[in-house]
Specification:
The complex is a heterodimer. By secondary structure, chain A is an alpha+beta fold. Chain A is built from 5 helices and 13 strands. Chain A has 2 domains: 74 residues, 2-Layer Sandwich (Gyrase A, domain 2); 134 residues, Cyclophilin (Beta Barrel), CATH 2.40.100.10. In chain A, α1 crosses α2. The longest helix of chain A has 18 residues. The radius of gyration of chain A is 19 Å and the shape is elongated. The chains are: A alpha+beta, B alpha+beta.
């Protein structure tokens, strides 16, 4: 059954579109397609968009349009999500990961709790093609789903003060790469030598909401050769 | 116009940040807006220094900022009641003042309100990052060093010489009836219901709009945590979704949090709606212990109020004070 899409008021210059109440591949594509459509159609009436798991926040300029006109524009985009717009098809990004107990301090305990070997956890983590469901929490932090339930793990009881940049992590049925050093409570299973977010380059992020991500294991030497730091 | 000089920071004060109108269009990579917490005071400071609405100015929290001018230009300070002096001579707020090379500009500590804005003719010339110089410490972005750090002793804030004719001509002043009064440490905030508002029962909504809430010490540029009658939504949490400026989120303890300029861009707490942005400055000026009430308005009223406010600002004529030299 097609989930019912609704448009609600968020604030004086914001409407939020709900695509359903559970994240899925289909919904992630719809959110991304609608965002691309609105970006192409709204011009300077649009201030910003916040795509997330199953919703899209549309922030508009109240001095150039109003919520009636915006509702119509959103309905039009929803009716024709893959229309003749300039939206880019979602891209696939492969991220290298050095999985080890040295680079992933929670890898052993996660494997033990899942009654799996470290090699099995690594293999399962690499099997899935993930979707970027949302970006937030910190600049460039991409929430990737859905993780295979066999290696899902709850957040740590006590979050770490310092999670290093590039940490590949798991929380519940999501996985992510920490874009910068920060506090964090996710389970760390490895390190990615590539930067998820780099404010000094254009574009500063390789992925956007709706894109797909795969992980590929690399060994210690390759990690170091790629500029990774231990 | 040469930009080889500016203001030197002698004392940074408690917490002083470079802010322009904010960073827009970057939510897709998780960047928040930043920008002045009291946008009304910010725009008046800039208006006094020339017709510059989005120029970079300094947001001074609580006070204590001391600058030395290495340029001849014009400044203005608005917002919280921070005692301003130039070379130890007291100067009025909400008014433009000429400064010359070697002048010492000093801001004391606020007697009412908590955020002051110091603008300069032409704005501070700082390289933007993601199209804005707005300082967001949590994101390590913006400001003089582009890395989110607050002003530090020794920083040089580049600005250009303003024309000598302008300086000699006249000082400008915001009419008294346009200056907000922060002295009561209380505010009435207008709210547009939205988001998960249907998850709050009629009773809890009534409680929210009829109760007084206090600002707690756990309030910063991300959000103001309030204390008062708990209101409980029928949902514990939601799928994380986009958060707009002024959104009122309600965690499990029922104590509302109003989200400000440096808010996280997505979050999973149920939300009742959003505070009208015209009232966000009033909120940001409150000190811990300050009291708040909320009033519901429709989206139509909100749009009308925004348009009227824009007209009011555009149609207000600044008063001219002739210099008696």
């Amino acid at each position: 059954m097609q989930p019912l899409k609704t448009i609600s008021i968020a604030g004086e210059n914001s409407l939020i579109v709900y695509f359903g109440d559970t994240p899925s591949d289909t919904i992630a594509s719809e959110v991304a397609a609608t965002a691309a459509q609105l970006r192409a159609n709204l011009g300077d009436r649009l201030i910003d968009l916040v795509p997330s798991y199953a919703s899209l926040l549309v922030i508009y300029d109240p001095f150039k349009t109003d919520h009636h006109a915006m509702r119509s524009a959103i309905r039009q985009a929803l009716a024709n999500p893959t229309g003749t717009d300039n939206s880019q098809p979602s891209s696939l990004v492969t991220l290298p990961v050095y999985y080890s107990t040295e680079s992933g301090p929670d890898l052993q305990s996660l494997a033990d709790n899942a009654s799996l070997s470290i090699e099995e956890v690594m293999a399962i983590h690499q099997q899935t093609e993930y979707r970027v469901y949302a970006i937030g929490f910190a600049p460039g932090f991409a929430y990737l789903g859905e993780l295979d339930p066999r290696i899902a793990a709850p957040r740590l009881a006590t979050p770490r003060q310092k999670v290093p940049r590039g940490a590949v992590a798991i929380a519940d049925r999501q996985t992510a790469v920490y874009p910068a050093q920060s506090p964090g409570g996710w389970n760390l299973i490895g390190l990615c030598p590539e930067r998820m977010f780099d404010p000094s380059v254009e574009p500063s992020m390789q992925v956007q909401v709706g894109d797909r991500v795969r992980f590929k294991a690399i060994d210690r030497q390759t990690f170091l050769d790629m500029g990774g730091l231990l | 116009m040469t930009i080889n000089s500016g203001f030197k920071v002698i004392k940074p004060g408690i917490f002083s940040l470079i802010e322009d109108a904010g960073r827009f269009g970057q939510h897709g990579i998780g960047l928040t807006t930043g920008g002045p917490l009291d946008s009304n005071a910010f725009r008046w400071a800039n208006r006094l220094c020339g017709d510059q609405q989005r120029a970079a100015a300094i947001e001074v929290t609580v006070g204590g900022l001391v600058l030395e001018s290495q340029v001849n230009t014009t400044i203005a300070v608005t917002g919280a009641t921070l005692p301003l002096s130039i070379n130890s001579q007291p100067r009025e707020l909400w008014q433009s003042h000429p400064v010359k090379i070697g002048d010492r500009i000093e801001l004391g500590f606020a007697s009412s309100g908590s955020r002051g804005y110091l603008a300069v003719a032409g704005g501070f010339h700082i390289a933007p990052i993601f199209n804005s110089v707005a300082t967001v410490p949590r994101e390590a972005l913006g400001g003089v060093h582009r890395d989110g750090t607050a002003l530090q002793t020794g920083d040089l804030l580049p600005c250009s010489e303003s024309s000598t004719q302008n300086q000699a001509a006249a000082q400008l002043r915001v009419p008294a009836d346009q200056r907000p009064d922060y002295s009561t440490n209380s505010a009435l905030l207008r709210v547009i219901l939205g988001y998960q508002q249907q998850a709050f029962s009629a009773l809890h909504k009534q409680l929210f709009f009829s109760s007084e809430y206090a600002v707690t010490k756990s309030s910063d540029r991300m959000g103001f945590r309030l204390k008062g009658a708990p209101i409980k939504p029928s949902l514990d949490g939601i799928l994380s979704e986009g958060i707009c400026l002024g959104a009122i989120q309600v965690p499990a303890d029922g104590q509302p949090i109003v989200l400000l300029n440096d808010r996280q861009t997505i979050g999973g707490y149920p939300k009742l709606g959003s505070v009208l942005t015209l009232d966000m400055g009033k909120l940001a000026q409150l000190l811990p212990g300050g009291t708040l009430r909320f009033e519901a308005i429709s989206i139509e009223q909100a749009h009308n109020l925004l348009l009227l406010d824009q007209q009011r600002f555009a149609n207000t004529v600044l008063e001219v004070i002739e210099l008696d030299e």
